[in-house]
Write a structure and sequence with these properties.
- The protein is α+β, with helices and mostly antiparallel strands.
- It folds into 2 domains: 59 residues, Orthogonal Bundle (Arc Repressor Mutant, subunit A); 78 residues, no CATH class.
- The protein is 48% helix and 19% strand.
- The chain is elongated, with a radius of gyration of 20 Å.
């Protein structure tokens, strides 16, 4: 079994693997990790460390993209925040309140598609952390094209 498929199988069962120096650490609900799983983790240690290291680097880059967004405008006592996105990705609205969300969706829907700012629920925005830059760009393009859509993962 490859490291990627082992990671996927363990993740599906609620097991989280992390690289800690030259060790692979895991967290899981009690009784989920079998001795066979432990043996597979030990056997694939080097490959797992490489995959986990790459995942950490990607997560750090995407977290930086999300965190580097600059607040441009707060709407109605922080019911929404308009952000300038890094890397030339434009602007987006991050929303916390339903009434503001509906108003912004209606407002952005009237703008030409190329000028629309994505309207994103805060929970959906937070789900972008750890995703690849391509995934972040794709989500922003979907939100720009379809104001009011939700991110399902």
């Amino acid at each position: 079994m490859s490291a990627a498929s082992l990671l996927a199988d363990l993740a599906r069962r609620g097991v989280v693997l992390e690289a800690e120096g030259d060790a692979v650490r895991w967290r899981a609900p009690r009784g989920v990790v079998s001795e066979t799983d432990r043996s597979a983790i030990r056997a694939a240690k080097a490959e797992l460390l490489a995959v986990l290291g790459a995942n950490e680097a990607r997560s750090a880059r995407s977290a930086r993209l999300i965190e580097e967004a600059n607040a441009l405008e707060a709407r109605e006592m922080l019911g929404a925040i308009r952000l300038r996105l890094p890397g030339g990705m434009g602007e987006a609205w991050v929303v916390l309140a339903q009434g503001v969300f509906d108003d912004l969706v209606a407002e952005e829907s009237k703008r030409p598609e190329v000028a629309r700012r994505p309207v994103v629920w805060l929970a959906d925005w937070c789900r972008l952390k750890g995703k690849s830059e391509d995934a972040i760009h794709t989500a922003l393009e979907v939100w720009r094209a379809f104001p009011g859509s939700r991110l399902v993962h």
